[in-house]
């Protein structure tokens, strides 16, 4: 292991010596008397072909080399290896290779590389200028990853670049246009695959002196800077001139590409890199990542010796770190303040955007080689210009320290591996100097669409002597986003917090902040102390249980103590004065607690100063948007240690209570009084009035938040009406109509059986049925739907030549739906009965009686303002009936008969008392009995048929009219717990009903008959349609 360490130190020193002997030249070309230029005389476009140059010699940089114009062709510089080495462009390090020089010229150079076992270095002993003096130049290079598994000593070449330059300028000079495109396969994660920097340059300048330059790095690497002896800036992007000629520089890094800017570590120079200077415009775009052998390779840029973005008036610098890319900055070793990067310097404008999951900016302080102390870095946004930092959509900015440490793999290969440590965090400065304007945006910038939140990992945010601000413009409406960073004002009144969109919570002590907080949208929740002043404008809400400074609410602004989405009353403290302008709002949560001496508990604004009320409305709530206004209650909503001046606006008038304010010199109370309005209002139905009057007359439980208090708290007469409809328990009355109507199925089963021809001595039979019916509602009751299905079986025996007697039993199940009242019921029926029939020629008479036991299960839901409840009940009922029918058969032809009939039935139903289970809306019902008498007249027509197999069949149909006597509107006597009884009517039975039947009977044998039929009833208030099937067996 010791030998490996020595070998690596040797390699490192070797590279430092190599870099130290190189010097930098200006990219501005000075044409020599004997200039060497490209003429492509051989026509093969090969760079190293001596015949393609004006001096017919192998090109060197002992003089400047010019590729002025290549037309539509491209010069090819081949890096094909020969014995592991590639050709180089020698020279004295003081001259430049110009590609696309002078106005109107356009030149293109393509550097080709061969993938293989090893790739050595091409040394260009000088500089390269791509697009200069008004010309247009393009350089393209594809960087291959090479396999180092067969190299005897791979660590010897660990830091070797593929092309080494003194200086690279792209787009230098007025109207110049330069493009360098480096593409490659990205960094390898294999132990034996190595991809060093495609380009290593001591200085890199893009878009300078009025030129336009673009560097495109896709899956490749470039390194700029020197470790020794360079007192000039190693990197500039978008640099203008003192005369105001702007340059425009752009760098795009994607596909896992990397740019490393090492700067001037040991010189007395300033910052090692600048983006946007002297009225220039510089843009660095970092985007995305790639997967290599299951490893994520981020597109990244590293600035190891400090960074300035947007320097000097008129300059624009910007950096975008998007979609999982990475930016690393380290403070210059000459910067004693350990500022990793300055955004907006000397009246320039700079901006940084970090957006997207896994997008990261790591900012560090002074960074050293192993075994030396590495320091925590800081950031300055708006140092002495205008700077902004936007963190959105899961992006992260973290301020810590970075050290370079040895990394060894299984083969012994070692490298310097940067390790970022944010266990100790640095500080973020906003508007550091007097003329600095610095903004931190969480989400989107102010005036732009809100974005998802990003994270800033810093020790504290310091608002400097300039104008610093934090903008919260995000989409988080869950109430779970908490901003935990400490905020410090460097001087009294410095710093602005702007809440624009989303819900943001401050849960730590920020009493050291003395600036101003502006809420213009969304909600700011303060759960601890926040110093400075507070203003709340339209669409903005201040919430929380902490303490804020002097607060002013403007038109449309809202203040609401407590947590968001909570209706639990809390206290919010104003440590100063409170001013509420006209149109502002105070949302008060209210509740009752009977365990307290004063059971009426509400939110409280505790003002440690004076309260100035220039209007402003109070909105109260307990459950969502509903407030329970308990008559004779008194709620304490504001207290001031100074005085209360002015009044709130009047509250919205309520139909059944009056809500007023009560003021004393230091307090405001909200007082509720029951007014004179009756709960039974004009236009209400009888059911609504019966219930309303009953609630109005209740004197047993006032003020306890029961049904009475909920109803008198309704915001309108209409909501009270709708509440009565759901509270009334109408299903219990309407179910009786269905029960009386359904008594007919037992009678119809018996009648259908006894219409068989006489002459049999007896038999057994079965009868199944299903029916779907509805009862019409009116302004008092709701529609009712019922479906039922069941079966009857019976046996009978002829007991004399005239008389036949029999018995019947059966089961049925009905479902009843009172949808408009949010209620339903299920009913199980158990039937028994007996009957007797007499036959005298064509005249027949039969009579019978029946008894049915019913079991109800009812289900009601209440959803009204202030009350949500579910109520269920199980109770029994029974039906008794006596019925008789007489008919006379008249032959019309040999196969057709007519059979007029008349019948009557007396039905009595009894319903047991019951008690619902549920909340305060549960009802109790009294037992009662309902009597009804029905008569029916009609005629049945029958036609005899003989089928092909010899069987006989009958087609038949019936028309008739049924009339109901007595009261056809059932009712129920109900009461709430502790209340007196009230009467509720149900849906009506039809007084008159038309009966339609049609069927077919088939004799399978002499002893057996089967049949099916349709049964319909159409009445003045109900309809019912059903189908039946039956089987008869004669003994």
What does this structure look like?
- Keywords: Signal.
- Pfam families: Autotransporter.
- InterPro entries: Autotransporte_beta, Autotransporte_beta_dom_sf, OM_autotransptr_brl_dom, Pectin_lyase_fold/virulence, T5SS_PEPC_rpt.
- This protein is mainly β.
- 7% of the residues lie in helices and 51% in strands.
- Among the domains are: 564-580 and 589-674, no CATH class; 727-1034, Lipocalin (Beta Barrel).
- The strands form 8 sheets. The protein has a 22-stranded mixed sheet that branches. The chain has a 19-stranded parallel sheet, with no helix packed on it.
- A hairpin with a 5-residue loop joins strand 70 and strand 71.
- The chain is elongated and about 140 Å long.
- Mean pLDDT is 87; it is low at 1-33, 154-160, 186-195 and 265-269.
What keywords describe this structure?
elongated, Pectin_lyase_fold/virulence, signal, 19-stranded parallel beta sheet, mainly beta, Lipocalin, 76 strands, 22-stranded mixed beta sheet, 1035 residues, 6 helices, Autotransporter domain-containing protein, Autotransporte_beta_dom_sf
């Amino acid at each position: 292991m010791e030998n490996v360490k020595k070998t690596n130190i040797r390699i490192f020193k070797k590279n430092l010596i190599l870099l130290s002997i190189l010097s930098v030249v200006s990219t501005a070309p000075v044409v020599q008397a004997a200039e060497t230029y490209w003429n492509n005389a051989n026509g093969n476009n090969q760079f190293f072909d001596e015949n393609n140059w004006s001096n017919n010699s192998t090109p060197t940089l002992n003089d400047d080399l010019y590729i002025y114009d290549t037309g539509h062709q491209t010069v090819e510089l081949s890096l094909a290896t020969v014995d592991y080495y590639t050709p180089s462009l020698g020279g004295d390090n003081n001259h430049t290779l110009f590609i696309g020089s002078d106005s109107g010229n356009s030149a293109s150079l393509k550097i080709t590389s061969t993938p293989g076992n090893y790739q050595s270095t091409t040394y260009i002993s000088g500089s390269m200028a791509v697009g200069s003096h008004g010309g247009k130049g393009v350089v393209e290079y594809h960087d291959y990853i090479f396999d180092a598994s067969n190299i005897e000593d791979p660590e010897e070449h660990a830091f070797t670049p593929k092309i080494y330059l003194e200086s690279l300028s792209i787009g230098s000079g007025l109207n110049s246009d330069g493009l360098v495109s480096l593409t490659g396969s990205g960094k390898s994660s294999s132990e034996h695959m190595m991809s060093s920097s495609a380009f290593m340059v001591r200085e890199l300048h893009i878009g300078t002196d009025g030129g336009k330059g673009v560097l495109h790095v896709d899956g490749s690497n470039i390194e700029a800077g020197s470790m020794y002896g360079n007192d000039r800036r190693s990197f500039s992007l978008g640099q203008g001139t003192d005369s105001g000629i702007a340059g425009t520089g752009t760098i795009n890094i994607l596909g896992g590409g990397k740019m490393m800017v090492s700067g001037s570590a040991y010189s007395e120079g300033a910052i090692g890199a600048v983006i946007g200077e002297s009225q220039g415009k510089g843009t660095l775009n970092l985007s995305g990542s790639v997967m290599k052998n299951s490893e994520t390779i981020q597109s990244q840029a590293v600035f190891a010796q400090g960074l300035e973005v947007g320097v000097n008036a008129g300059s624009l610098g910007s950096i975008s770190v998007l979609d999982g890319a990475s930016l690393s900055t380290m403070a210059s070793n000459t910067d004693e303040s350990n500022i990793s990067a300055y955004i907006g310097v000397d009246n320039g404008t700079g901006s940084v955007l970090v957006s997207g999951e896994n997008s990261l900016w790591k900012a560090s302080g002074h960074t050293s080689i192993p075994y030396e102390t590495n320091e925590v870095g800081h950031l300055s946004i708006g140092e002495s210009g205008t700077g902004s930092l936007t963190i959105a959509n899961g992006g992260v900015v973290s301020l810590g320290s970075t050290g370079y440490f040895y990394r060894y793999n299984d083969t012994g290969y070692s490298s310097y591996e940067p390790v970022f440590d944010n266990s100790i965090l640095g500080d973020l400065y906003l508007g550091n100097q007097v003329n600095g304007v610095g903004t931190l945006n969480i989400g989107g910038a102010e005036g732009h669409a809100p974005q998802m939140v990003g994270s800033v990992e810093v020790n504290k945010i310091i608002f400097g002597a300039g104008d610093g601000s934090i903008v919260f413009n995000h989409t988080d409406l869950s109430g779970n986003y908490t901003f935990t960073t400490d905020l410090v004002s460097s001087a009294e009144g410095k710093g602005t917090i702007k809440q624009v969109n989303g819900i943001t919570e401050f849960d730590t002590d920020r009493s050291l902040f003395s600036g101003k907080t502006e809420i213009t949208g969304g909600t700011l929740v303060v759960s601890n102390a926040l110093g400075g002043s507070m203003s709340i404008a339209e669409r903005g809400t201040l919430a929380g249980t902490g303490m804020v400074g002097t607060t002013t609410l403007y038109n449309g602004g809202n203040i609401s103590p407590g947590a968001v989405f909570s209706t639990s009353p809390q206290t919010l403290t104003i440590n100063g004065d409170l001013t509420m302008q006209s149109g502002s709002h105070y949302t008060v949560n209210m509740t009752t607690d009977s365990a307290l001496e004063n059971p009426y508990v509400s939110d409280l604004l505790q003002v440690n100063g004076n309260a100035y009320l220039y209007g402003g409305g109070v909105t109260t709530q307990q459950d969502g948007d509903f407030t329970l206004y308990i008559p004779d209650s008194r709620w304490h909503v504001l207290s001031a240690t100074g005085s209360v001046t002015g009044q709130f606006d009047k509250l919205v008038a309520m139909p059944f209570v009056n809500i007023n304010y009560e003021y004393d010199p230091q307090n405001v109370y909200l007082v509720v009084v029951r007014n004179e309005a009756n709960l039974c209002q004009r236009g209400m139905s009888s059911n609504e009035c019966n219930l309303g009057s009953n609630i109005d007359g209740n004197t047993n439980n006032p003020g306890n938040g029961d049904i009475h208090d909920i109803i008198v708290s309704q915001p309108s007469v209409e909501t009270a009406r709708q509440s009565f409809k759901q509270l009334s328990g109408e299903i219990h009355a309407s179910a009786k109509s269905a029960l009386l109507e359904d008594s007919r199925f037992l009678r119809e089963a018996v009648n259908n059986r006894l219409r068989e021809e006489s002459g049999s001595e007896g038999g057994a039979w079965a009868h199944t049925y299903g029916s779907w019916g509805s009862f019409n509602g009116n302004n008092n009751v709701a529609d009712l739907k019922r479906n039922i299905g069941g079966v009857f079986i019976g046996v009978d025996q002829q007991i004399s030549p005239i008389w036949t007697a029999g018995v019947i039993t059966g089961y049925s199940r009905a479902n009843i739906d009172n949808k408009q009242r949010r209620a339903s019921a299920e009913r199980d029926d158990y039937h028994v009965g007996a009957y007797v029939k007499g036959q005298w020629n064509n005249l027949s008479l039969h009579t019978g009686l029946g008894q049915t036991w019913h079991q109800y299960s009812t289900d009601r839901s209440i959803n009204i303002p202030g009350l949500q409840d579910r109520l269920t009940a199980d109770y029994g009922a029974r039906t008794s009936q006596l019925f008789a029918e007489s008919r006379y058969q008249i032959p019309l032809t040999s196969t057709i008969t007519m059979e007029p009939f008349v019948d009557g039935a007396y039905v009595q139903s009894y319903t047991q008392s019951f008690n619902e289970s549920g909340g305060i809306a549960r009802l109790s019902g009294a037992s009662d009995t309902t009597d009804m008498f029905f008569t029916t007249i009609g005629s049945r027509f029958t036609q005899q048929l003989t089928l092909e197999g010899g069987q006989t069949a009958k087609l038949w149909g019936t028309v008739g009219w049924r009339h109901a006597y007595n009261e056809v509107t059932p009712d129920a006597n109900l009461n709430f717990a502790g209340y007196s009884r009230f009467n509720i009517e149900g849906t009506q039975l039809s007084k008159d009903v038309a009966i339609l039947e049609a069927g077919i009977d088939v004799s399978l044998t002499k002893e057996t008959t089967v049949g099916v039929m349709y049964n319909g009833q159409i009445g003045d208030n109900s309809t019912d349609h059903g189908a039946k099937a039956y089987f008869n067996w004669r003994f």
